[in-house]
Amino acid sequence: MSDNFQQLQQRLNINFHNPALLRQAFTHTSFVNEQRGPRLADNERLEFLGDAVLQLTISEYLYGIYPDSPEGELTRLRASIVCEPSLVRFAEALEFGQVVLLGKGEEQTGGRTRPSLLADAFEAFLGALYLDQGLNTVRAFLESHLFSQLPTNGQAPLKDFKTELQEKVQHLAMGVLDYRIVEERGPAHDREFVAVVVIGKHRLGKGIGRSKKEAEQQAASEALTTLAKQYPV
Which among 21, 140, 186, 187 could disulfide-bond with 128, CB atoms 3.0 to 4.6 Å apart, if both were Cys? Predict the structure, then answer.
């Protein structure tokens, strides 16, 4: 176990029983592809598991602190948390980018700060922590590092990306937003939706989610990132 991983555990006050799981959580495919000898395990499978763990724990948290909110509102709130921009903020706050194992090419092209890579590492870490110490430890970790940054009952709810995008577009007088579901994939019990948000013929963002609403939230989030680059404050 390298010094970086030892320091990470100290910062988080977590000691992995199986250090190999922690290392795998931060092993990018580019690193694996450049290694000789027996193939190492990358973090993609752990990311898959961590996504499910995060969805469950966030749903459980929101269900508890918003007892009067309907299903649609809870879905909107969850989508505003379990999205790439939010996960990147959490990963950056925890300095996950410093410990990711990258191939030389990925390193040279700025992979250590790449949003999708950081979001994936955050989910992979949760997957590894779940396998190593169970759901209660994951809950405790999220209580300390994620839930504490979210609004509690009685406070203003999280602002959803679709509303924020609508306000931004109106302010810029860009036209009318249109959300479209362009693809549905997977079996009925594990459906995945792909949404895009457009103005006229111009696509501003694309999103993927387990519901149409969640996919639209993701698309709006990506659109906000696009507009922030084109129209910086």
Answer: 21
User: Is 3 considered catalytic here?
Assistant: no
Q: Which of the following is catalytic: 47, 84, 120, 123? A: 123
More confident residue, 83 or 14: 14
Of 51, 132, 160, 222, which residue is the catalytic one? 51
E strand intervals along 52-190: 178-185
Candidate from 13-17, 19-23, 81-85 with smallest mean pLDDT: 81-85
Mean pLDDT, residues 55-80 taken together: 88
Q: How do residues 163-184 score in pLDDT, each as one tens digit?
A: 888 888 888 888 899 999 999 9
Confidence band for 157, pLDDT divided at 50, 70 and 90 = very low
**Is residue 207 in a domain?**
yes
Asked if 129 and 18 sit in the same domain, the reply is yes
Residues 203 and 94 in one domain: no
In 3D space, the residue among 39, 74, 33, 31 whose CA is nearest the CA of residue 55 turns out to be 74
Q: What pLDDT does residue 154 have?
A: 43
Residue 123 annotated in active site: yes
CA distances from 61 to 13, 32, 140, 171, 197 (A): 22, 36, 12, 34, 29
Q: Which two tokens stand for residue 149?
A: 């940054």
Strands 192-199 and 178-185: antiparallel
Question: Does 216 lie in the same domain as 102?
Answer: no
Residues sharing a CB contact under 8 Å with residue 176, sequence separation 6 or more, in sequence order: 199
